[in-house]
Structures are given as structure tokens and as C-alpha cells.
Amino acid sequence: MQPDFFDAADKLIVYGSLAPGEDNYVLLADLPGTWEKCVIRGHMGSFMGYKSFRADPGGEEHPAWLFSSPGLPERFPALDDFEGAAYQRVVIQVEIEGRRVWAHIYEGIYGDYRGMG
Question: In whole angstroms, what is the distance from residue 75 CA to residue 97 CA?
Fold first, then answer.
């Protein structure tokens, strides 16, 4: 199934320091929107002390947040700069309350991904 970039335009999956209560939440805190708990599938690792995730539909389940906000499309360039070259923004499907939706996520380029073969 092809990613639905239009559907994903105002959605971001957050699994690390941008999540509510974490160190870099301030980068999203001023945006109006909703936060919902969700599950992502893939491989979780770390890079320079921060979580790093690689999507894989056959991978393990990991808890995350789905943030939906009409302000995200304008904020993405600043978030891309913040995440830097170690993370790339991609679109994946996320499972939330029995439904699947498309959303952006910052996927780690580097990291020690446990369980990857």
C-alpha cells in the first residue's frame, strides 16, 4: 500500500524527546492539536543517547504518540533542522485504537538497532 502523504500532512508519530514531558517537547508544545497513544512496529535503538527507530511492519511493537495538528506542515522544516542528518522524516502507517493511519515519523539513520538481522 502506497503512503498517503495528504492524510499524513498534519500527523507526527513521536517516540522520543519530542513527546509530552520529555526534554524537547517545547518544540511542539505551542501547537494546537491532539495527542493519542499509538503503537509503531519496527526496531528501536539509540544514537548518541537518544532513541532511534527504524520502521519495519514485521518488527516488534513499540509505544509512541500520534500528534495531530494543523500547524505541523509549517513546523516540519524547523523540526527537520532540529533532527539533523541523523534522522530522516518518512511516512509510515501507525496503529491506533484498531485503525491504521498514515503519519510522519523521524526515522534514525544511525543507531544500535536490537533485533535487526
Answer: 26
Domain boundaries, the chain: 5-108
pLDDT in tens, 48-98: 888 999 999 999 999 999 999 999 999 999 999 999 999 999 999 988 888
The CATH superfamily assigned to 5-108 is Gamma-glutamyl cyclotransferase-like (3.10.490.10)
- Identify the DSSP state of 10: T
Of the candidates 24, 18, 81, 94, the residue with the CA atom closest to the CA atom of residue 55: 94
Pick from 31, 42, 38, 52: nearest CA to 112 = 52
